[in-house]
């Protein structure tokens, strides 16, 4: 009786193992077949796989009558091709590179060639993508990771030992082998580290940062915008402007004042410019001025303005701000940005 129960347990376990193995294979197939983007993380770190329509830009190798070589263990080395100014070969292991953990996988690499002409201590940094064509979907399985490949004398070959599982690759329902033909590819982008950087600095209380604008014959001014002369602070020219009849919510009962960004000094790096300003309407009899402040990024294109539409009500001008039919505005640039191109 006990022997009978033990035999039954063995049979059940074996049946469960078969079902589980079949389910695992089916799951891999489903992931490949129904998802346009998937990630098989078996010992591959941050390797990602996704399908895309565009052909690889550097190299495509197509093998017909693939069944002749599909069980071979030695690598296939492609012809030399040029990409990004260097010469390369595609190295394919159709049954996996066992020395690189490629058991039960297809392995694919790119090797740099003709390195004798490169200078001593050469290094080429590459953003590498490798491809397997899926004829069923007319798309390319793209395999990549986040690591920059550093080609040098000690590391002339980079790629993926586990490009795609053989279980998936050889499954006729998946579409990687169609009419006994397969295609692989590579995309090589050289990373050339930039030698310069754009550095933005903020200068507080820069030199010559106070500008005074006296406006004469105030009572005769028309309903339009009047502008001051330009003044240079930091890398940029600025000017003040106002309409004596008012603007926006302050019209016609209040006096506005605005700071305008203009052009750049010669040889300046033309970028958006930070401008923080204290705007004042001076009290000409010695009392406290009317004040307003603003701070903003001013775009490269001249003419952008920041300010207020009500620095003082017109009825209050007579209280020491309008003297001998003149008013005095001041702009104090308390902080500006300066941009330079410097070595990294």
TrEMBL record:
<feature type="signal peptide">
    <location>
        <begin position="1"/>
        <end position="24"/>
    </location>
</feature>
<keyword id="KW-0732">Signal</keyword>
<feature type="domain" description="MATH">
    <location>
        <begin position="56"/>
        <end position="188"/>
    </location>
</feature>
<dbReference type="Pfam" id="PF22486">
    <property type="entry name" value="MATH_2"/>
</dbReference>
<dbReference type="InterPro" id="IPR002083">
    <property type="entry name" value="MATH/TRAF_dom"/>
</dbReference>
<dbReference type="InterPro" id="IPR008974">
    <property type="entry name" value="TRAF-like"/>
</dbReference>
<protein>
    <recommendedName>
        <fullName>MATH domain-containing protein</fullName>
    </recommendedName>
</protein>
<feature type="domain" description="MATH">
    <location>
        <begin position="208"/>
        <end position="333"/>
    </location>
</feature>
């Amino acid at each position: 009786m006990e022997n009978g129960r033990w035999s039954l347990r063995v049979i059940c376990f074996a049946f469960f193992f078969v079902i589980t193995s079949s389910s695992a294979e089916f799951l891999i197939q489903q992931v490949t077949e129904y998802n346009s983007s998937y990630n098989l993380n078996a010992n591959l770190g941050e390797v990602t796989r996704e399908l895309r329509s565009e052909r690889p830009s550097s190299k495509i190798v197509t093998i017909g009558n693939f069944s002749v070589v599909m069980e071979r263990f030695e690598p296939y080395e492609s012809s030399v091709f040029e990409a990004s100014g260097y010469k390369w070969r595609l190295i394919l292991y159709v049954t996996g590179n066992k020395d690189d953990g490629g058991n039960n996988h297809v392995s694919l690499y790119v090797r740099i060639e003709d390195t004798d002409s490169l200078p001593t201590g050469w290094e080429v940094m590459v953003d590498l993508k490798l491809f397997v064509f899926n004829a069923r979907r007319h798309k390319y399985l793209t395999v990549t990771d986040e690591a920059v490949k550093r080609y040098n004398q000690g590391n002339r070959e980079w790629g993926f030992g586990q490009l795609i599982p053989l279980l998936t690759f050889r499954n006729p329902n998946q579409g990687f082998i169609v009419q006994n033909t397969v295609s692989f590819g590579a995309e090589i982008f050289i990373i050339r580290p930039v030698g310069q950087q754009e550095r933005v600095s903020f200068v507080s209380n820069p030199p010559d940062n106070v500008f005074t604008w006296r406006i004469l014959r105030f009572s005769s001014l028309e309903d339009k915008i009047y502008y001051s002369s330009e003044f240079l602070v930091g890398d940029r020219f600025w000017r003040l402007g106002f309409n004596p009849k008012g603007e926006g919510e302050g019209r016609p009962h209040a006096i506005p004042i605005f700071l305008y960004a203009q052009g750049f000094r010669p040889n300046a790096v033309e970028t958006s410019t930070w401008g923080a300003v204290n705007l004042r309407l001076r009290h000409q009899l010695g009392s406290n001025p009317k004040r307003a402040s603003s701070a903003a990024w001013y775009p490269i294109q001249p003419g952008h303005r920041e300010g207020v539409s009500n620095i003082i009500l017109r009825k209050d001008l007579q209280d020491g701000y309008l003297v001998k039919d003149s008013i005095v505005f001041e702009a104090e640039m308390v902080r500006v940005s300066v941009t330079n191109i410097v070595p990294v």
